[in-house]
# Entry
Amino acid sequence: MNHHSLHIQGLVRFRWIAIASLIVGTLPLLQAGYLQKNQMPYVMAVVALLAVFNGLTQGIWSKISADQEQHVLFGQLYVDLFAAAGILFVTGSANNPFVYVLCIHAFLGGIFLRGWRGGVFAASTLLILGILQSETYQDAKVTVNFDDRALFFEFLSQWVLVSVSGARSEEHTSELQSHSFI
# Structure
């Protein structure tokens, strides 16, 4: 196995854990009301597509050269980000307590992506958060007794946590690399 493919191998393993968590977590999400029965086909389709994507990725990780690694990681992280955003959009957008999963995406982008790719990915993560928040805000405006101040502080905390997750990971990447952790 190529040394540079270890990042992709780690991402594949992490994605298998996320897929298993989504499958196991559907029942509690249904019971808590964050997932409706009519949303299940969409969520399961995303999970199935991620599983197929992950299986294909698992088959190619040893064939990826050092020159291709950043391109592949960039694409892999975007697939994960869009899958998470799609599930969040269907299950309550920024009102879903699992919206903070975007912190994990920001963190992984800060750890794995170099140069312009890291900045583009961080901006994309924040853009997706903004879209989810906008959808939540538009939905909340039609609610009786809507308190936009409470929503503002909730949204602000989401922005801060996602931003800090990406920034802190970039700061410590070189330290982790020097210890051969990544």
The chain is about 80% helix and 0% strand. The two ends are 15 Å apart (CA to CA). The mean pLDDT is 84. The first helix runs from residue 6 to 32.
